[in-house]
Amino acid sequence: MALISGNFKGKIDNKSIWDYMHKLDYKLETLEERKKFIDELLNLKNIDELKFSDDEFWQEVFDKGICKANLNTIDVLWSETNISHFLEKVGTYLLAKDDKKEEKENIKVYDSYSEFKRSMQQEKKMRKHAEVVEFDVEDNENSNGKPVRILKNQKNFKLSPDIKISKKDRLKYSEIEDYYKYKQYLLNLKNDKEHRENLSKSINSNNVKLRIKKGGDIYRFAIKQLPLVQDDMLQVKLQKDKNIIWKAPLKDSCNDINIDCDLIDMFDPVHVKALLQILYNDNLIDEIALSKQDILNKIELTDTQKIILSLWEKGVTQNEIAKQLGIAQKNVNLHIDRIVNKFIDKYTEIYEDEYYYVYLVKGKYKKCSKCGEIKLIQRFDKNGKKGHKSICKACRQDGVQNRV
Fold first, then answer.
1. Within 10 A of 7 (CB to CB), how many other CB atoms are there?
2. Per the database record, which ranges form the HTH luxR-type domain (predicted)?
3. For the chain, which end, N or C, has fewer CB atoms within 10 Å of the first or last residue's CB respectively?
């Protein structure tokens, strides 16, 4: 056999390598089907529990193929030949459908976050004290696969129900009954082609200015008017019954979030004090939690204040904090008030920089001669009648602390 540039391009027994390569049937689903197909394709025979090809092509390839022991730089490796590539392809063809037992996922979908969380906690406790093995009912076999739990996207509102016109409404209000009769008339125009044609001829003979040339114009008119009439009927019912239509979506009964962002006043010490006491958890609105933590990261707190804030977030009372730190309760309250004031001052600064003097009022800015940043004029101390100092308050404060 001859190999040209690592490829066998000739034919043996009127067969080439392509006669085998292009016949692989990928529609076969199971491994046994593919094994049987390969046996037929390569004409494999069992001899002493070993398989040998009865094709002259493969006998020539394996029995008379020349393999050099000492290769030089221009010799081609056997693994780079098209015959080797085909055999690798056959191996991949079989491995792709290996009949190993596929792990079946045990999927359970939860609508409520509380049920989802409770299930996860129960599983965590079980796995902590013992090995959990899932049981496959269909195959009567055990599986070490971990069940999959999915929490559906939580919808924090449900829409108000659609308003419909009933027979009672028609009997109750004459206006709705009139609209209903007109609606039925339009439906008749829409569905009765002969009626439309006769009506168009009658209208054209009596009034040329209407420009109704055929029944299709009346059909389009009826199609456009039907939703408008339906809307008018609903408006009449709303005006008569005075139904309450909520401007905002209704909260869902299974919603765990009970905090309204609009009700929190970041400038109110009472609100901020309560907000600082809430430890971040899954029930707290992410926007509030992130804003709170972002502001706290920008505040300089003493070590004592950090400890008090950490305990305060965990729900520890002021009396308990005082006992742990060995200080009076009034001092704990004083530290908390100072943290609240720092929080409000920093929030006010962020509010002014990013919103008030950007969208509401045109702000005045000045460049600090020390840090080089351009800041609001409010970030500089006044310098008598001359205006403002050249160094901002933050740099001046840093300088004082460095001297201390």
1. 15
2. 298-347
3. C
Contact 89, 18 (CB under 8 A): no
Look at 255 and 296; give whichever has higher pLDDT.
296
Residue 64: both structure tokens together: 């008379």
The tens digit of pLDDT for each residue in 193-220 reads: 888 788 777 776 655 554 555 657 778 8
| CB count in 10 Å sphere of residue 30 | 11
Token pair, residue 101, equals 């037992």
Angstrom CA distances, 317 to 289, 302, 311, 336, stand at 21, 20, 8, 12
**How many residues are given for the chain?**
404
- Choose the weakest-confidence range: 30-39, 156-165, 339-348, 352-361: 156-165
Using DSSP's 3-state secondary structure scheme, residue 325 falls into helix
Residue 14 zone, left/alpha/beta (φ > 0; ψ -120 to 50; rest): left
Taking the CB of residue 83, how many other CB atoms lie within 10 A of it?
Answer: 21
| Closest C-alpha among 57, 46, 50, 56 to residue 86 | 57
- Supply the pTM of this predicted model: 0.36
Encode burial over 303-321: b for 16+ CB neighbours within 10 A, e otherwise: eebeebbebbeeebebeeb
Mean of pLDDT values over 398-404? 61
| Residue 392, number of CB atoms within 10 A of its CB | 24
Listed in sequence order, the residues at least 6 apart from 224 whose beta carbon sits closer than 8 Å to its beta carbon are none
d(CA 269, CA 178): 60
